[in-house]
Each structure stands twice: as C-alpha cells, then as structure tokens.
Amino acid sequence: MKNIERIHEEAFVLLNEWSERNRVENNEVNPYFYMRSVRDERFKNGYWFPGNDSYICISFWAGGDSSNKTPNIYFEINERVGCRVIIVAKDSEVKYDYFANLVSTINEFSSKKYVLGKSGKIWIKTLSSNWQQWREELGEFLLSDKQWIDKYLSDMPLIEYEEFVSRFGFITAKDFDIMISRVFKERDSIKNKIYEEQKRFLIEKKMPCSILGLNIENFQGIKGTGVADLRPDARWIFITGENGYGKTTLLQSIALGLSNDPNLEKYLDSKSRISLEINFKNEKAFLVRTKGVEPELAYLQDYVVGYGPSRLNVQSISSENMESRGSNNVGSLFESDTLLKNINYELFASKYSNTKMYGELEDLIKAVTDNRVSKIKIRDREVLFVETLSNGDELEPQPLSKLAAGFRSIINIVIDIYLRFRKIHFNLDAKDFFGIVLIDEIENHLHPLLQRELPITLSKVFPQIQFIVSTHSPIPLLAAESTSIILRVNRSRKTGVTVERLDEEIDFPTLLPNSLLTSPIFGFQNIFPENKESDKFLRVEETYAELKKNDEQAERIEYYLDKQASEKILGLINKKFE
Prior knowledge:
Elements: H1 3-24, H2 41-44, E1 55-58, E2 61-62, E3 64-65, E4 70-71, E5 73-78, E6 82-88, H3 93-109, E7 115-116, E8 122-128, H4 134-143, H5 145-155, E9 169-170, H6 173-203, E10 209-219, E11 222-227, E12 236-240, H7 247-258, E13 273-280, E14 283-290, E15 304-307, H8 343-353, H9 355-368, E16 373-379, E17 382-387, H10 405-422, E18 435-439, H11 448-461, E19 465-470, E20 485-492, E21 496-501, H12 513-518, H13 544-560, H14 563-577
Parallel strand pairs: 12-19, 12-20, 15-18, 18-19
Antiparallel strand pairs: 1-5, 2-9, 3-4, 5-6, 6-8, 7-8, 10-11, 10-13, 13-14, 16-17, 20-21
Helix pairs in contact: 1-8, 8-9, 9-10
C-alpha cells in the first residue's frame, strides 16, 4: 500500500470516528468533512479525498475553486512539502475579499501565520515540513483554525456570489451522508476482494505474509548467518538460545529488513546488510536493507509490528494515541521506553463513536484472558475491568493498571496489534488481519498456564498473522503447531552469532517439558535438583498426579508390611524408574 493510499484510509477512519463522536455528544462543532464526489479509478483504489498521488486535500466545508480545482479551504498532506492549510480564491473576487478578512482575523491570534502565495489569491500556512506528522497537525487544526473558520462563517455567512461560482459554506448532513455512504460501499467492495485473496491463501496452505528466508551480514554481533526454505504455512517461528547469544539481535534484524523508518537507521553501520525473502499475498518478494538506501518495497513496513521484553508502558490518555516519539510499529524492539497504544482511550472513544470497534476490543480482551476479564465498565471517563475467578466469584471493578502484570502484558500487546493492523486492514475483522508480529521473550510476566495458552489464543484471534518470537521457556512450545519453525541462535568469538534450524530434526510436538529442555532446542543438560538430600530418592514421575498416586501406594504398602520389607519393595519400585 502506497503512503498516500494508507493516509487516505487512516484519515477517513480518524475523521469518521471524530464526526460520529461529535454528533453523539452533540458538541457545538460542524462535524462533517468533504470526500471525493466522483467514482473514478482513484476512488476505486481507496482515494477518499481530493488530491493526487503526492498530496491529499481534507476539507470541512462545501465550496471549491474552479481555477485551482481544489476546495476553497483545505488541510493538505503533501509528501514533498509537509502539512499545510491552504485558502484559495482564484476564481472569485467576492471570495477573495471574504477570505482576506478571514486570514487577517486568524493571523491576529495565531503564532503561525497565513502567507499570501506568489501567484496571488491563495494563502498558505505551513504547519510542518514533515508529512508524517499529519495526525498531530490535523488534530491541532481541528482545535484551532477550524473553529475560527466555523465561527467566522457562522457570524458572517457569504451570501452574494458571482455567476457560476460554487458557494462556500457548511456541509449539510444530507450531503455528508451521501458522500460517506458512497465511501462505505466502496470500502466493502475492496474488503470483498481481500476476502477472496484470503480464501486462495487457505487453499494453497500459505500464510498471506510470512518469512521464507533471511541472510544477515555485519549487524551487531552477527558476522554472517542465515536460513532458507522456511515453510510458507508456518504460523509460528520460535527463537531459542542462551542470554546474550543474539535472540533479540535476530528479531531486530528482521524488523529492520521490513521497515524503512529513518529513525531506525542509526542501528545499522556502513557494512550492515540484511536480506529477506518473504511471501506477500502469494508472491515472493526480496528485500535488502543497507544504511542510507531506502528499501524498494517500503510499504511492507506497515505489515510488521514488533515488541520488546517490556510491554506494560502505554501512551497517556491526553495523547489520544496520536503517533509520538518511539511509537513506530517496531520501536519497542529497540528502545525499552517505547509506548504502546492506550487501551483506555480506545475503549472510551469507541464506546460512543464506533460500536463495532468497541465490540471487537471487548471480545479480544475476554478471549486473551480466557474470560478472566469478563466485563468492561465505563464510569465518566474511567475504564474499569471486572475479573471473574474460576469459582464464579466476581471481583470489584478496577482500572487496567491494577490488573496483574501478566494480564496487563497480554491485553496491552493484543490490543496494540489490533490497533496497528487496523490502520491497514481498515474494514476487515481482526481474524482476517495479516502481517508479521515479532515478540521478544513472549513468556515475560506470565504464569506457565498463560505461557502455554498465549500461542493458542493469538492463533485463534489472529489466525492470518505470522508470529516470530523468542523464548527462554519450553512451555510456549507445548502449544506450538506442527508447522512451526524452531531456530536456535549460537555464538562464538570466531563465528559470531549464527542461526541453526532445529524443527526438521526434532519432533518437538511429541516432547514433554523435560525432553524439550534437554533437547538441542534449549540445551539444558542438568535438570536435577541441586539441593536434594542424599537419603531421599529422586522423583522421576512425569506428572505431579502420578507422584501423589505413588505416595498413596507407598503408604498402603507401609501399612501392611514391616519397615524392612517395605524398604525392599520401595527399592525395587524406584529401581524401575532409574
């Protein structure tokens, strides 16, 4: 997806939610925005607003300039020059005088000024030279200039016009409903095309987006390593290895290979080279990342999300989940203070503006906690979670910050995945989102029960997403699908960090934790208790239930036999297990 296509969709979703929220809350604000009125090829490709392949015009008023072929007043997102507000009156002297007075009024109270363009009859206010800051700038525009313009238009509506000049004014509810219905209909058409593609992936037993191979040179502790011919239907790739051996480095290299974020280039040096082979929508793609060179398929960075070991820090409510420092899709893998999306804000906002999204968020939270979090309540602006224990007892509602760290970690990461992929899979259900998710130390903060359940739950709620995770624990592998790939990182002074594939030689789905621990997957050779007393037998039962059963049998034997006989029989029993 091109940047422009993505911005059209993200801006539409953001503004539609803004519009719905203001209409529901009956705020004194004009809650309508203008959308492309002609169903041309651009519209069929998701270009919802006026503009072309390099810029977007977002307007909140009716009326256009026939000479400039744009709305009279619009917020512009331009990949070449950044974010601007533009007021145009080339085709009308009446409009020119009207807007000149408007500009003078706003400039009197605004730190950033509108400047008359060289061509005349057009005023430009530059908000930012970086187009990627459009969310922040649009949010600020809605709270400042838009309100000034709305007030000016309400107090002094423009009534007289020259002949054949379009009228500048507020968009009516009727016209808005016609425009937005047209967009929703086209979005459904695009959604159906994606569904057809998804069906084909399922028939061909391929993930819509997956890693097929990688080769890494001169990146941190990696001198040169790689793997090839990874199966395209692998939903899970597990990475194991000792601390400091390069699990995080491997995840970071994959993230860098898929991302073109300029903020991450500092982690590459002049000799670094990361090559990835991926399957994307049933086609092979080859990506090469080196310092200073933008990848050819830069749009693929939208389809990868990454998380470091710490997953408890979220954005503040006041940020309203706008993009901020470190909030890129994979930043958490590189900087521990990167913030995840704020769940409380999303729940509160969607409760009153997007009931479908609220329902999906609520269902996800219940699913990933196995209904331990059974209810969500909103009181004023506070979001509260109700826990139900296994015996049916309901606990008092409490904020997310008071939930156990394990639950918070799971909820944070699952909702963050949903929110980030929702930007590109705009009108799809969560089960149809596709892409790649990288997680470092997936078992962090989790009880063994949740460690085992998390891969099952993630596969259930996001069945089309490939997960590439590192782990120190054998428990998540107990839930691994038979198609999973297992990579172990090794390290030596001579070879640096290297990657070894193990799933082809070890039938891991048949192994219990002790066997997994002592296999090459984890290489844990000494599993015996360090402080076992010498006069006690080592317990080698497979389960605690088996151990208790043996103890009960021992008690019965001791009851019927004298001490000497019982010791003899117990010796024979224990010898059997040695």
